[in-house]
Design a protein that fits this description.
Shape: elongated
Order of helices and strands: HHHHH
Helix content: 55-70%
Number of helices: 5
Distance between the termini: 87 Å
Length: about 160
């Protein structure tokens, strides 16, 4: 049997708002019912207690909580630091990344053959980026090695700076 009636998938905002409000109203009603049941249960369990027993329970409760509070205050203000949290000094990590652009100080000289390999690789990458068939390989290389072109530029600048000094 084929159904020809389409459901309206785009509910109006008024319907969605009324659904939310009815759902919230149901949650509120369920919460009130639960509170009422808990209050009745507690009332049944404590119905046999007299006024004197309530005063005794209140006295013990205040003495106990006051004693715990005083103990915590005195213990925190005393010199006992056996269980306290220790604070480690802040130190500069060894592998810190500088925020400012600093020139890279390399002590290694780049030979002419190594520089030619770098130039050939840059030309190869440029030709891959320009051709439609090599574009996929170019994007793949840049995805798995982000920053490779920046590194090549830095090495080229370093090579040229060797001859300026």
């Amino acid at each position: 049997m084929k159904f020809t009636i389409k459901k309206n998938s785009k509910n109006s905002p008024a319907e969605a708002d009324s659904f939310r409000s009815s759902l919230l109203q149901r949650f509120d009603e369920a919460n009130l019912r639960l509170q009422y049941k808990c209050a009745n249960w507690l009332e049944r369990k404590t119905a046999h207690l007299s006024r004197k027993s309530w005063i005794i329970i209140l006295f013990y409760f205040t003495v106990f909580t006051g004693g715990c509070s005083i103990y915590l205050i005195v213990n925190s203000l005393s010199g006992n630091t056996t269980k306290s949290i220790t604070v480690a000094p802040i130190t500069k990590p060894t592998n810190v990344v500088p925020f400012k652009e600093k020139s890279i100080q390399l002590n290694v000289a780049i030979s002419k053959t190594e520089f030619e390999k770098i130039v050939r690789f840059r030309r190869y990458m440029d030709s891959l980026g320009r051709s439609p068939t090599g574009k996929k390989l170019y994007d793949s290389i840049l995805h798995y090695r982000p920053g490779i072109l920046d590194s090549i530029t830095i090495v080229e600048q370093y090579y040229h700076s060797q001859f300026k000094n």
